[in-house]
Amino acid sequence: MFNTASTTPEKILQMLAALLLFAAVMGLILFIAGRFGGKRGDRIVAYLYLLPVVLMLGIGLVYPGLRTIYQSFFDAAGKAFIGFDNYGTIFSDADQLTVLRNTVFWVVVTPFVATAIGLVYAILVDKSRFESFAKTLIFLPMSISFVAAGVIWKFVYEYRPDQGNVKQIGLINQLIVWLGGKPVQLLIESPLNTFLLIVVMIWVQAGFAMTILSAAIKAIPDDIIEAARLDGVNAWQMFRKITLPSVQPTVVVVLTTIGIATLKVFDIVRTMTGGNFGTSVVANEFYRQTFNADNQGLGAALATLLFVLVIPIVWYNIRSLRQSEAR
Amino acid sequence: MSTTTPVTTTPPLVAEKPSAAKVAKKRLSSPWASLAAIVLAVLWTLPTFGLLVSSFRPERAIKTTGWWTFFSNPTLTMDNYKGVFGGDGGVNLANFFINSLIICIPSVLIPLSLAALAAYAFAWINFPGKNILFLMVFALQIVPLQVTLIPLLEIYVNIKITGTFWTLWLSHATFALPLAIYLLHNFMREIPAGLIEAARVDGAGHVSIFFKVMLPLLTPALAAFGIFQFLWVWNDLLVALVFAGGGDEVAPITLQLANLSGTRGTAWQLLSAGAFVSIIVPVTVFLLLQRFFVRGLLAGSVKG
Amino acid sequence: MFGQPTSPRFRAALAGTLSAGLVLGLAACGDSDSDSSSGTDASAAAIDCAPYTKFGDIKGKTVTIYTGIVTPEDTPHIESYKPFEACTGATIKYEGDKSFETQVLVRARAGNPPDLAIVPQPGLVKQLVSTGKAVAAPQEVSDNVDKFWDKAWKAYTTIDGKFYGAPLGASVKSLVWYSPSEFKDSGYTVPTTLDELKALSDKMVADGKKPWCAGISSGDATGWPLTDWMEDFMLRTAGPEEYDKWVNHEIPFNSAEPTAALDAVGAYLKNDKYVNGGLGDVKSIATTTFQDAGLPILDGTCSLHRQASFYAANFPKGTKVAEDGDIFAFYLPGKDATTKPVLGAGEFVVAFADRPEVKAFQTYLSSDVWANTKAKLSSGWVSANKGLDQANLTNPIDKLAGGILLDPKATFRFDGSDMMPAAVGSDAFWKQTTAWITGQDTPTTLNNIEKAWPK
């Protein structure tokens, strides 16, 4: 059962076995939980429900995370303890300010724009005749692999010179040429290039925002809408007074999720500019040091910096959690 | 599509008043709204559309002229798609397809169920350390996948399950949990406390509340997260490469598609065709799960 | 959200990858459909099984081999293993993966390495050995390498006195691509010294052309073609001995010789009279992908493009790569006609297991028998294995590359960035030369690289 399955029936059997095993574990937890009641029992039920999750996260994420923090105090080979030297390196490097500035741009712009577009779109197409099709269009970028996304955006940003019979193959430069301008090397101009890369991330993440927010919009009780309707509110008031307050917690969730995903994203930067021309972000530096430069210590320090950068987002969530408790 | 809610899951209350939905639709589909939606949709689709057009163009044309040239000077070829389906190597795509499905199904179901349980505990049960634990779980989203690879692989080597699907199921499930718990927790908090209290007064325990009250109300949220988890697992290459070892027995379709571009990454005419082949499954899943995005499940209850 | 790890070093790594599989299709006159696996019947050719009997009965055993070589170049590799499988009854399990270069380190560190890995850089071999999981090559392999390869090759993977990886294939980087028909029509001749190359470029400028085209964009490996340029010029302006000192950091990266070499590159690439034919101005070098950079030659908007032999695979199907075809390459000349420095790269087989079947297969891969079997099966592939019969190289560019590699007068040097520590060879060197082409001056560039060199 724990061997490599090589034929299709074997694979399917292994999958069914895994699902059965999982169902059995779940069943056991629920069975035990079902035997407890009352206030004291509540605690036991909660811990039972959380047991598998805590185990998996402990092994799969907490331990590697702590190990990374530990490693960040060691040298490139991970052998000699060097204290805070790696952090010193990060903050003494001249390019690092640009990296931090870019990271701030990414985290400030991406979540808000992607969420706003996702929300507006979800509302606009909600209940329209082509809702499903219309949503698929925005969702599409999410389901494209990063490798393909790189090719897609190459066809948008690519530069060809204004020379002889050379033709543009990038859409933006073609538009510029059609309008009578000269083609621009879009990915070199800093800080414009960072925003062009952010556009790609927004393009991908709007689908996420739209899908999650759409699920939230669908959960707004019809009678609330109808009541407002009877009061004769217009579309804008509907949005301000009903829709937005109803989905507000979900908006926070979506902002947070995209914010964290943005902090971590490096594929876009890596495939499109390789972090050159002043476009690098912390996650890209982390990847570069860990895998290109083989500097385990510095890579770990950059990952730890990511953990630190998430603190404002956590703090924001603590606040909104408190608010919702208070409600 | 969503205006016709499935009868089975819809409380009769909603079915009796379709008027609200109708009114809303009428109000919202003003010409400006429609125009805005269309502009957004076009902007979002245009880049991908360019890739679609490119996937039918010959290699030389792709590399020297823009895809819009296709409309003034159409040259059509199926070569790129033939290349994807193993024109020369005789690659058995079907095998990789099955692998991807085998990887995906448990990798979606397992974290979804575990996260639902955990989110319920966080949302509706009081226990010491609840908030701090929840924030920790949620903050774990920031741990980059890359730092977990070596520690986890060491564990899998020790328990001798490398090169099997088990490594992938366990890893994907683990990585999905922080986000899944966070999202589902949010949706659970939105459910009116009155419903839970009423059930408790009726003597229902946490197990039966979870199944009888929560799960039916959570359908849109579960569907939404299910779509994304499926998508991420389907498009994943990193986890598959590291833990399954990339052997043909367990390798997902993404590995095959990534290798399509050739050893030196020059053949992006094949990549563009490959992208549309691999996109079919996630989009199908998206369309199928759309039917669970049902309005009005909470109708009739008092919010709050 | 979690993207795919297209290996960081990978594209740069071009380094060792020789098997430019499409070349045959391009070169074979008019036959645009033939792929790299043509001539499969060659694999059926019986080989002498005697060298493998001493490893005992390895029938039914499996050897896993992990590489960065994927479709379509993998087919001739897999085919070339068949005579060995027929001899011994062992099975070779081939695994090609584009992100090989990061994954192999992860797997080795976590204790889950393959039996054998085909590694395209000596620097990476060093990293793998430092994980403690690699095992030294058996005596039989060492003997084969002594017999068939120049001793410089053995030194690349000899670490602390132990020999780890037998070389497999090799590539030539000191090549300039050009259009034979343009040369004929305009009366240009192939230069034989650096001065002649300069004169030729000037003549082209006088004819109203932008002679050179270049592109260094390659995702996260952006910049690597510039490191090749600089290495080629270092070999020529400072000589092979200084080159070795530079690569081994016996002279600082920012000392006089490397500065002169980079400035010599600048005389071509930062000269807006010379570049960037069909692609724009000097800065456009930074954003043009290396794959696209030589294509303007086909359109007639560019005349010269310096790139390795594997670049042949980049031309669209139907392009004839031959001395009398659409495009061909000449040797990037030395300082004068008497010196012939050659910049190249290669790949090495590193073992992580010493079971008999693994040793037997390593022995096979290091033999002249394998080199000839492989040469017959593939195109766009050459080796510096002296046992390789040149007659087995079928297409023109392979013949050219093979001829340069095995020329006794040539001085071969391995791609320096592949041998430098990763922090320089696959990070600072790339990043800084990219900044250099977009405007940073030479001293700043070299100082920054020097600073990145691990202490």
Automatic annotation (TrEMBL), chain B:
It is a multi-pass membrane protein. Signal peptide: none annotated. It comes from the Bacteria. CDD domains: TM_PBP2. It is found in: Cell membrane. Pfam families: BPD_transp_1. The chain crosses the membrane at residues 32-53, 96-125, 132-153, 165-188, 209-234, 267-289. Keywords: Cell membrane, Membrane, Transmembrane, Transmembrane helix, Transport. Residues 97-289 form the ABC transmembrane type-1 domain. InterPro entries: MetI-like, MetI-like_sf. Belongs to the binding-protein-dependent transport system permease family. This is Carbohydrate ABC transporter permease. It comes from Paractinoplanes bogorensis. The lineage of its organism: Bacteria, Bacillati, Actinomycetota, Actinomycetes, Micromonosporales.
TrEMBL record, chain C:
The keyword Iron-sulfur does not apply. Keywords: Signal, Transport. This is ABC transporter substrate-binding protein. The keyword Signal applies. Residues 1-27 form the signal peptide. Belongs to the bacterial solute-binding protein 1 family.
